[in-house]
């Protein structure tokens, strides 16, 4: 009941506006006068706003109901029939198994800021949400459930298992979507998509058929990343490399004079060796090239081949060649026509050579090394041997390179088009220096393995007939025959990246020519982490250009860094540095988390974040709240146009001039994706200039009353109105709460974005800068003398002939300076910026004691300087001392110099005891 009452009186509920359902609405109930020259497009309400706000801002009470109100009123729903210019961002689809982590919160904050600003600028702004079916991860989740029941997917069969996955998806999947609401994501929920929904499935089948017919999809036996636990091929991005303790053994191949020594970390694969390779220019082995040597532990001989892939400087300059279990060896085998012998099954169990058959690969490794050692074939052993080993990102099983029959995309022509789109300027990469990484990838891309040995995913639409026929079936075509007639569909499904590569256009209705596709494609910005530029960005570029007749999928690729802990290290659960952003949102509010993330977002650069930074952002939100509350209590208003500048004080003109410069600065930073800089600019303008200076200076004006107070109340209302609108895209909740209370408007979400009107007053800015310097200097002096901030001191101000004369009342109020009185005796005089401030400290400090204290501090600083100078002048010391030690001494010397200058100034300003 209390919350409903507060929402009503604080402006969160519309005043005088009827309920609106699922449609775009104006930010005002009816036409009202425009504001003045600064922001003439600002939204206004005739309804008098409430001047009351709770004494403290409670995000937990506000954010949930406020977000639901935004959604119910259709603020985020985009209209394909609108004549407004379109602005589109499709969300990088999170996994259906996932939950919100700081990386999501980071990128979502930036995308939300972009789309909220564009909506306020008058664009038909679409931020389209959705989820990826996450083939391996989701299948693993359901298989784990089955394992708890003592079953496997094979007990259910394919159809029943897939139905079980759909049930899991409906019950448990999409947790992250609710968390996105908690963050404040302004997405169009009516357009939510899923990579396995009917429309996207049709898009997948359509493009597969098109690629197949254009001979850009083929089936071949190649080396792939194989997970013996998940029993499927996996993509490069699903391989995590870790430094593992292994072993490096050197093995002697051959007999007598015809021997070679090879080193390997995977001794078990020697059972599948079909050659030893050396460099063609290596004189040590030229006599062996073309000969056959004995392969230990087997009854086979293998040839010695010459191949330029071999580095003669590395190890012995000879390498074992196992074409079926290593991608480089496979390439050598192709060049030399070598046989490929598979020695392991899909579970990484040895399948050849009697003594080792049936052993797991790791058991076989130690057993084979023991057998070689007994024959005197082990030349050297190194344990532990730390080296980089690929692991399945889903289950952490060690990856096994494996020769396998798979489906592939011929990427050469597609990659060429993806590279050309960036080279000719149709797509811009931001920051520009990331373009090299993009070109390094697309210009050297290998054919893409798209088949996965899973049951959950888009099944490959290819049927095999009884006579060896291979038929690819499109979405509107019937299979060529039944199983009873000997026809079988390929059992594999497509790589998840295949469907997510269609995301920018499949989500808008392709292959149908829908109004959404016509209005919102191509999308404007793809904002994503630089870590998936190779795997997702390049695939979307290839598919978008191919499917959409050369039209790019997005005009700008804005690459972000990754979120790190406060020390710049990768967050991880094992090290205890992983953070659940929901914990921080619950404690500090979503705005605080968003502002912290945005303030660290320099393009392409990793983002360190710590809890103390979120606390600081929470303090900023509270500062905005308290300052607006003060303004409302003192009559700040947005009613009517701005007064004529001739009626304004220099303080009023200064803050309006600074406001307009901030508007222009923030716009420039947005257009350059400089989120950290725009957030910092807004922080310092709002906190330092509006709250710490203008609000404080206005107190004197309000107390004086009259026309000057009326003018300043209107200026303060204008400044807060525009500042809240500028802040809204990054901190949406507190700004909407305050803006509706201040203006009586329906919601800042649909208010106009502030315009740079060109209002500038450099003279007023110089005047207030002078005022600030006086106040800052005297405050510093007071602090140096140990005076309490609220302690009043008699003072004489000499301001005549300076621009400070009109500000005497404000100076006295801010500095706690009393009138001088009859017994005034100036004990300290400060000449500042052409003015003189004389203070009578006789009743506030013991001058003699203060001089004694400062003299002691001065002696200590001078002693420190002598010691540091002596060390830096000692050549012998400098020759031996580490650089960091010398740097510390230089820092000590600089600090001593600063202390001496500061203390001496304080002594000079004190009267003689």
From TrEMBL:
<comment type="similarity">
    <text>Belongs to the class-I aminoacyl-tRNA synthetase family. ValS type 1 subfamily.</text>
</comment>
<feature type="compositionally biased region" description="Polar residues">
    <location>
        <begin position="40"/>
        <end position="54"/>
    </location>
</feature>
<dbReference type="InterPro" id="IPR009008">
    <property type="entry name" value="Val/Leu/Ile-tRNA-synth_edit"/>
</dbReference>
<feature type="coiled-coil region">
    <location>
        <begin position="851"/>
        <end position="906"/>
    </location>
</feature>
<dbReference type="InterPro" id="IPR019499">
    <property type="entry name" value="Val-tRNA_synth_tRNA-bd"/>
</dbReference>
<protein>
    <recommendedName>
        <fullName>Valine--tRNA ligase</fullName>
        <ecNumber>6.1.1.9</ecNumber>
    </recommendedName>
</protein>
<feature type="domain" description="Valyl-tRNA synthetase tRNA-binding arm">
    <location>
        <begin position="846"/>
        <end position="910"/>
    </location>
</feature>
<dbReference type="InterPro" id="IPR033705">
    <property type="entry name" value="Anticodon_Ia_Val"/>
</dbReference>
<dbReference type="Pfam" id="PF00133">
    <property type="entry name" value="tRNA-synt_1"/>
</dbReference>
<dbReference type="InterPro" id="IPR001412">
    <property type="entry name" value="aa-tRNA-synth_I_CS"/>
</dbReference>
<keyword id="KW-0648">Protein biosynthesis</keyword>
<dbReference type="GO" id="GO:0005524">
    <property type="term" value="F:ATP binding"/>
</dbReference>
<dbReference type="InterPro" id="IPR002303">
    <property type="entry name" value="Valyl-tRNA_ligase"/>
</dbReference>
<dbReference type="GO" id="GO:0006438">
    <property type="term" value="P:valyl-tRNA aminoacylation"/>
</dbReference>
<dbReference type="InterPro" id="IPR009080">
    <property type="entry name" value="tRNAsynth_Ia_anticodon-bd"/>
</dbReference>
<keyword id="KW-0547">Nucleotide-binding</keyword>
<feature type="region of interest" description="Disordered">
    <location>
        <begin position="18"/>
        <end position="59"/>
    </location>
</feature>
<dbReference type="GO" id="GO:0005829">
    <property type="term" value="C:cytosol"/>
</dbReference>
<dbReference type="InterPro" id="IPR013155">
    <property type="entry name" value="M/V/L/I-tRNA-synth_anticd-bd"/>
</dbReference>
<feature type="domain" description="Methionyl/Valyl/Leucyl/Isoleucyl-tRNA synthetase anticodon-binding">
    <location>
        <begin position="652"/>
        <end position="793"/>
    </location>
</feature>
<comment type="function">
    <text>Catalyzes the attachment of valine to tRNA(Val). As ValRS can inadvertently accommodate and process structurally similar amino acids such as threonine, to avoid such errors, it has a 'posttransfer' editing activity that hydrolyzes mischarged Thr-tRNA(Val) in a tRNA-dependent manner.</text>
</comment>
<dbReference type="InterPro" id="IPR002300">
    <property type="entry name" value="aa-tRNA-synth_Ia"/>
</dbReference>
<keyword id="KW-0963">Cytoplasm</keyword>
<dbReference type="InterPro" id="IPR014729">
    <property type="entry name" value="Rossmann-like_a/b/a_fold"/>
</dbReference>
<keyword id="KW-0067">ATP-binding</keyword>
<keyword id="KW-0175">Coiled coil</keyword>
<dbReference type="Pfam" id="PF08264">
    <property type="entry name" value="Anticodon_1"/>
</dbReference>
<feature type="binding site">
    <location>
        <position position="573"/>
    </location>
    <ligand>
        <name>ATP</name>
    </ligand>
</feature>
<dbReference type="InterPro" id="IPR037118">
    <property type="entry name" value="Val-tRNA_synth_C_sf"/>
</dbReference>
<dbReference type="InterPro" id="IPR010978">
    <property type="entry name" value="tRNA-bd_arm"/>
</dbReference>
<dbReference type="GO" id="GO:0002161">
    <property type="term" value="F:aminoacyl-tRNA deacylase activity"/>
</dbReference>
<dbReference type="Pfam" id="PF10458">
    <property type="entry name" value="Val_tRNA-synt_C"/>
</dbReference>
<dbReference type="GO" id="GO:0004832">
    <property type="term" value="F:valine-tRNA ligase activity"/>
</dbReference>
<feature type="domain" description="Aminoacyl-tRNA synthetase class Ia">
    <location>
        <begin position="66"/>
        <end position="607"/>
    </location>
</feature>
<keyword id="KW-0436">Ligase</keyword>
<keyword id="KW-0030">Aminoacyl-tRNA synthetase</keyword>
<comment type="subunit">
    <text>Monomer.</text>
</comment>
<feature type="short sequence motif" description="'HIGH' region">
    <location>
        <begin position="94"/>
        <end position="104"/>
    </location>
</feature>
<feature type="short sequence motif" description="'KMSKS' region">
    <location>
        <begin position="570"/>
        <end position="574"/>
    </location>
</feature>
């Amino acid at each position: 009941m209390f919350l409903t009452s507060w929402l009503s009186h604080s402006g969160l509920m519309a005043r005088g506006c009827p309920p609106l359902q699922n449609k775009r609405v104006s930010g005002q109930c009816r036409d009202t006068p425009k504001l003045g020259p600064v922001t003439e497009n600002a939204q206004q309400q005739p309804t008098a706003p409430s001047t009351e706000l709770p004494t403290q801002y409670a995000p937990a009470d506000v954010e949930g109901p406020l977000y639901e109100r935004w959604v119910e009123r259709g603020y985020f729903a985009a209209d394909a029939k609108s004549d407004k210019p379109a602005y589109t961002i499709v969300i990088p689809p999170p996994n259906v198994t996932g939950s919100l982590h700081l990386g999501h919160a980071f990128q979502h904050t930036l995308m939300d800021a972009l789309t909220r600003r564009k909506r306020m600028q008058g664009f038909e702004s679409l931020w389209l949400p959705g989820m990826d079916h996450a083939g391996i991860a989701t299948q693993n989740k359901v298989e784990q459930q089955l394992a708890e029941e003592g079953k496997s997917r094979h007990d259910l069969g394919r159809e029943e298992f897939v139905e079980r996955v759909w049930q899991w998806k409906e019950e448990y999947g999409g947790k992250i979507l609710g968390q996105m609401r908690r963050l404040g994501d302004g997405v169009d929920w009516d357009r939510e998509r899923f990579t396995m929904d009917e429309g996207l499935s049709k898009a997948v089948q359509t493009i597969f058929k098109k690629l197949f017919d254009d001979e850009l999809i083929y089936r071949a036996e190649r080396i792939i990343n194989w997970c013996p636990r998940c029993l499927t091929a996996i993509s490069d991005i699903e391989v995590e490399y870790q430094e593992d303790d292994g072993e490096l053994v050197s093995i002697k191949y051959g007999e007598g004079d015809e021997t070679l020594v090879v080193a390997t970390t995977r001794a078990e694969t020697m059972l599948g060796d079909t050659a030893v390779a050396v460099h063609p220019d290596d004189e040590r082995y030229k006599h062996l090239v073309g000969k056959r040597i004995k392969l230990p532990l087997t009854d086979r001989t293998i040839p010695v081949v010459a191949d330029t892939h071999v580095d003669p400087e590395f190890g012995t300059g000879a390498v074992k060649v196992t074409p079926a279990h290593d991608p480089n060896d496979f390439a050598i085998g192709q060049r030399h026509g070598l046989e490929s012998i598979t020695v392991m099954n899909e579970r990484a169990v040895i399948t050849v050579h009697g003594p080792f058959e049936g052993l797991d690969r790791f058991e076989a490794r130690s057993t084979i090394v023991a057998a070689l050692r007994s024959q005197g074939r082990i030349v050297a052993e190194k344990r532990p041997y730390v080296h980089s080993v690929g692991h399945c990102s889903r289950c952490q099983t060690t990856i096994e390179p494996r020769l396998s029959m798979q489906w592939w995309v011929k990427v050469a022509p597609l990659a060429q088009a993806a590279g050309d789109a960036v080279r000719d300027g149709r797509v811009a990469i931001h920051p520009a220096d990331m373009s090299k990484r993009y070109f390094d990838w697309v210009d050297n891309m290998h054919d893409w393995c798209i088949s996965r040995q899973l049951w959950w995913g888009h099944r490959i639409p290819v049927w095999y007939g009884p006579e060896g026929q291979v038929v690819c079936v499109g979405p509107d075509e019937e299979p060529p025959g039944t199983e009873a007639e000997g026809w079988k569909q390929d059992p594999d499904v497509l790589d998840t990246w295949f469907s997510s590569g269609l995301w920018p256009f499949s989500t808008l209705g392709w292959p149908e020519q829908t109004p959404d596709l016509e209005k919102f494609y191509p999308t404007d910005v793809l904002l994503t982490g630089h870590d998936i530029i190779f795997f997702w960005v390049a695939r979307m570029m290839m598919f978008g250009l191919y499917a959409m007749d050369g039209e790019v999928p997005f005009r700008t690729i804005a690459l972000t860094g990754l979120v790190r802990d406060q020390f710049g290290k990768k967050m991880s659960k094992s090290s205890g540095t992983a953070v659940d952003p929901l914990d921080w949102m619950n404690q500090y509010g979503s705005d605080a988390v968003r502002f912290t993330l945005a303030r660290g977002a320099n393009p392409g650069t990793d983002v360190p974040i710590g809890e103390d930074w979120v606390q600081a952002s929470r303090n900023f939100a509270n500062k905005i709240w308290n300052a607006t509350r003060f303004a409302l209590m003192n009559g700040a208003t947005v009613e009517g146009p701005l007064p004529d500048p001739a009626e304004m004080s220099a303080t009023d003109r200064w803050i309006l001039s600074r406001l307009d410069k901030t508007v222009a600065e923030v716009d420039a930073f947005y257009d350059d994706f400089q989120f950290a800089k725009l957030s910092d600019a807004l922080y310092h303008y709002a906190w330092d200039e509006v709250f710490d200076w203008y609000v404080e200076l206005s107190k004197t004006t309000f107390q004086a009353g009259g026309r000057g107070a009326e003018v300043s109340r209107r200026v303060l209302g204008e400044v807060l109105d525009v500042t809240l609108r500028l802040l809204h895209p990054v901190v949406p909740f507190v700004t909407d709460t305050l803006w509706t209370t201040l203006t009586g408007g329906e919601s800042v979400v649909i208010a106009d974005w502030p315009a740079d009107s060109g209002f500038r007053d450099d003279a007023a800015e110089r005047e207030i800068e002078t005022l600030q310097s006086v106040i800052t200097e005297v405050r510093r002096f007071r602090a140096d003398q140990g005076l309490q901030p609220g302690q009043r001191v008699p003072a004489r101000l000499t301001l005549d002939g300076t621009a400070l004369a009109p500000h005497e009342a404000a100076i006295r109020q801010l500095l706690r300076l009393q009138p001088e009185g009859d017994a005034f005796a100036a004990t300290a005089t400060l000449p500042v910026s052409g003015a003189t401030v004389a203070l009578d400290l006789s009743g506030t400090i013991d001058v003699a004691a203060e001089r004694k204290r400062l003299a002691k501090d001065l002696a200590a600083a001078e002693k420190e300087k002598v010691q540091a100078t002596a060390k830096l002048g000692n050549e012998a010391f400098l020759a031996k001392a580490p650089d960091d030690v010398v740097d510390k001494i230089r820092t000590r010397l600089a600090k001593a110099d600063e202390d001496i200058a500061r203390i001496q100034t304080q002594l000079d300003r004190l009267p003689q005891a």
